Amino acid sequence: MSQRMAVIAGSVLAAALVLSGCGSDDDDGGGNEGGSGSAAAEAKVLAKVAQPKVGEMAGAMGMWTTDKNFVKAGLKKISGYPLAGGKAEWEVPLTGEVCWSSETPTKDGKVAVVFQNDKKDPSVCTEIGVVDINKGKLLWHKQATNEYGSAEMFDEITVGGGTVAAAGTSASAGWKLDGTPLWKPSDETCDTVGYAGDETKLVAVRDCGDTDNPKLQVETVDPKTRAAKSTYKLPQGTEYVHVAAVDPLVLAADDGKSQGGSGISRFITVDDSAAQGKELSTIPVGGGKHGKYEADCPATEVTGCAQLAVSKAKNALYLGTSDPASSSSEAKNDLVSFDLRTGKQLRRAPGSDSGRLVPIGVDDSGKVIAYEEANIAREAGGAIHEVDPATLKQTKVLQHPSDSYEMEARFESDRRTLYSGGRFYLGADHVTEPSTVYKTPQPLAVVYGEK
Length: 451
Fold this sequence. Notes:
Blueprint: H1 3-8, E1 17-19, E2 41-42, E3 44-49, E4 58-59, E5 63-65, E6 69-74, E7 77-82, E8 90-93, E9 98-101, E10 110-117, E11 121-132, E12 137-142, E13 156-160, E14 163-167, E15 172-176, E16 181-183, E17 191-197, E18 202-207, E19 216-221, E20 228-233, E21 240-245, E22 249-254, E23 266-271, E24 278-284, E25 308-311, E26 316-320, E27 334-339, E28 345-350, E29 357-362, E30 368-372, E31 383-387, E32 394-399, H2 405-409, E33 416-420, E34 423-427, E35 430-431, E36 445-449
Parallel strand pairs: 1-25, 2-32
Antiparallel strand pairs: 3-36, 4-35, 5-6, 6-7, 7-8, 9-10, 10-11, 11-12, 13-14, 14-15, 15-16, 17-18, 18-19, 19-20, 21-22, 22-23, 23-24, 25-26, 26-27, 27-28, 29-30, 30-31, 31-32, 33-34, 34-36
């Protein structure tokens, strides 16, 4: 396993999602408007993606859905399966293990991946590719060479404003989605740590300091030239910064004292409409009087934050807490929403009394989707809840079976989640060695649903 894969082992990845609809303008901490409805469908395990046999951990980062397929990165390949599970309908072979991938497909179904090359150097991530997951086809595969003629190594990759942008410890490179080069690795005044993006926007994180004294800044850049349109300088003492959402621009800053190794000390909302970015609000993850929050970001990468949701329509952030506010509450934790303009809490509501409840996405109507984790003590499967973004009232829509609770719970330390078309997709970002503790082999991914 490469060094950078060892760094991210155990971290989870999921996109920070833009939601429509939001909470009220109430800033008094909200009320306890939680509670699940009775509309839950009894789900079953529709399919499992078998885990390849390996001698050590290998990268398999990437999971998406299209109108036709559930797509999962596996060992040195990306495969498209029927939405309800079954044998792979197509496979895209790669030259080595997947190191990183863009979080969400473009509107026309393209994702970017960085992977290894077993024939040249299997320990580093030098290969850049774009895969059309609608067609199951690798559109192009390239390397970026440095001034010495060697293939540059990259840590992560994203797609923003039609640009494929990759960054590593020493350089960055960019291409159009059709593979046309935009910029090559070169000396930069400030090192590029990584990029984040969406359909129209590309954001860069740069370090103008050194290892012992980082000086981080976040730039909204021109996707074609990477020239800065807006620059926000992080406060002194910030060791890492992750981009939790691009529009609005929400940062997850780490001063090295993040709660439980979450990679987040505080959230910062930035107005990047002017050349000099302006801080609008700060939300400490320690929580102060409101408790602690359970969002999670990878150790050093810019993208990959999970267990949170961001609303562009109402400028709100949704998080799960570590514990319920009330000592008498039967809920495992609470859900909270914050006004990104002021940093004030809008609403708080108790979650489930079975498993911890975490936001993972949004449906087409704008409702927040929350995942209720499996409960080992109760031998209970997890569940999916629709959450009203204004009141945080929850309605359970899918109950996972109890006979697979152990398998479901084993995904907790390395998971990626998707809810689409009434089905829940749960996958791992790494292929791992067979367990010496559990007798049942753990799948790489599993599909839950009615049919």
